[in-house]
Amino acid sequence: QVQLVESGGGLVEAGGSLKLSCAVSGGIARMTTMGWYRQAPGKQRELVATISTGDSTNYSGSVKGRFTISRDNAKNTVYLQMNSLKPEDTAVYYCHAYDTQGINYWGKGTLVTYSS
Hints:
There is one protein chain. This protein is an all-beta fold. Helices cover 0% and strands 56% of the residues. It has no helices and eleven strands. It has strands at 3-7, 10-13, 18-25, 31-39, 46-51, 57-59, 67-72, 77-82, 91-99, 104-106, 110-115. The protein is globular, with a radius of gyration of 13 Å.
């Protein structure tokens, strides 16, 4: 059974950095595309970044240049390095995976809160 478990969220000060992790039980190798999404209070869930099996990455315009997504297949983990955090980055961040059979998986989320 596949499970995605996020960690690393918390309170971050203005301009600070945070690194999120998503541990994939059931094998990261079966996943084609993995990504991070976020949902701010009162808003819809939105794409943050994705990474494919060939390590091709894609970022939303609002985080490009500040966030970096990466994956470590040996550790069955996907990361999201977030730098120069802004108030609008406050949200629950969700890990997402899409496997070779077209099945989607979601984690339960981790909260990132900007503090001025």
